[in-house]
Amino acid sequence: MKRRAFTILELLTVVGVIVTLVGILVVGISAASRSAQAANTRNLMSSVSRALVQFKGDVGYFPPALGLGPTGPQDTGYMRDLVRPVVAPAGLNPQQITTLQTYYSLTTPVEYLIGPGGRDEDGYGGVGTSPTGLGAKEMPSVGIRSPLRDGVWGALASPRQSTPGNGAYNSRNLPRGALEANTSTDPNVQGRSLGPYLELKDGSAIGTVAGFDQNGMVVVARPGDNHFNPNGPKVLLDYYGQPIRYYRKGYSSDDPRRTAGKSSGSGGSSGIGWDLSDIFVLRPQRFTPGSELVGVVDANNDGATSRQLQTADFALFSSGPDQRVNNFVRADAELFNEDNIVEVGN
Questions:
Q1: What is the DSSP pairing of strand 206-212 with strand 234-236?
Q2: Which candidate, 293, 321, 282, 253, places its Cα nearest to that of 37?
Q3: Strand spans (E) along 195-281
């Protein structure tokens, strides 16, 4: 009997089928991976949202926004100074609208919800270690001490006279108990321990800020990386490895409990002149019927925004799979904002 071998055409057909199946499999796995990353990021942001509500239940306000920080990681105030909200009771002018787009924090969620270290992390204790007693060493090692009525551990209520700049990291004054009259930090602070409010199953969800790249984007390091700085400010990472942004409704009179939205008056301190619906990257790409409002216009002269953002007290933001964002428009031509993930809370 003659043996019949594959012809070249048959062999090429089989190879083509195998390549096609492998391609479909790779695309399917990639799509499943992207879906899992998005779902995990949304779940993480939902957990943070619940933790923020629990924090407010304990202290009476949502955490303030801590700064982006233009200085280097060696400086104590790096990304830990307070960012004061824009206050415009009669409405926003164009410059204030532009400034408002960067009114968010990357470090607030870790400092206020987890508190894994000393004063540089959570407003309690000192920096470094102490050979005897509590000293600069925090006990317990996680959680925070109440940040007091000003939201920044007395930096606004009774700032240290030796350090200029209310709301600055170096102005943090940690009083004994509920008092706010001390003029220096007490290393053995007494008072109620709060939190941690957020428990992470994956330790890789926390990164350390190592600096900024040439485009002004934050460079994040994890334990084991060459540029990892254990004393640097900590950020919460989404499942794409990027820091999650925390946006907060503004407040007046340096009191985070006194929140307000747009004011219809021409002056006074009853309103702050804006709400989260005025922040462009938080705005939806698509609107359900009855949810769309018209707000301040972005760089594309687009004022479309949502009722949900108008009433929100805070929002969490991930730049999504492409890890890119355009802060100054809602919908951009490059589709940078198309895959943004936003969690809104009240």
A1: antiparallel
A2: 321
A3: 206-212, 218-221, 234-236, 245-248
What is the pTM (predicted TM-score) of this model?
Answer: 0.83
Whether 195 contacts 143, CB under 8 Å: yes
Is the confidence at residue 241, as pLDDT, over 70? Answer: yes
Q: In the numeric block, which tokens belong to residue 145? A: 């001490």
Q: Which tokens hold the place of 33?
A: 């991976």
100, 92 in Cβ contact below 8 A? yes
- Token pair for residue 231? 């004393």
Q: Which of 328, 278, 339, 340 is nearest to 305 (CA)?
A: 278
For residue 275, the 8-state DSSP code is: -
Give CA separation, 241 vs 5, 111, 215, 303, in Å. 52, 19, 17, 31
Q: Omega into 140 within 30° of 0, i.e. cis?
A: yes
What would you measure as the largest C-alpha separation in the chain, in angstroms? Answer: 104
pLDDT of 89 over the 80 cut: no
Both tokens of 46, joined, read 């939902």
Q: Which two tokens stand for residue 26?
A: 């790779």
Check: CB of residue 212 under 8 Å from CB of residue 218: yes
User: What sign has the CA pseudo-torsion 228, 231, 232, 236?
Assistant: positive
Q: What is the rounded distance in angstroms from the CA atom of residue 345 to the CA atom of residue 254?
A: 22
The C-alpha atoms of residue 236 and residue 253 are separated, in whole angstroms, by 29
Would you say residue 232 has pLDDT above 90?
no
Helix (H, G, I), strand (E, B) or coil at 173: coil
Amino acid symbol at 315: A
Residue 141 has pLDDT above 70, yes or no: no
Question: Do residues 210 and 221 touch, judged by C-beta distance below 8 A?
Answer: yes
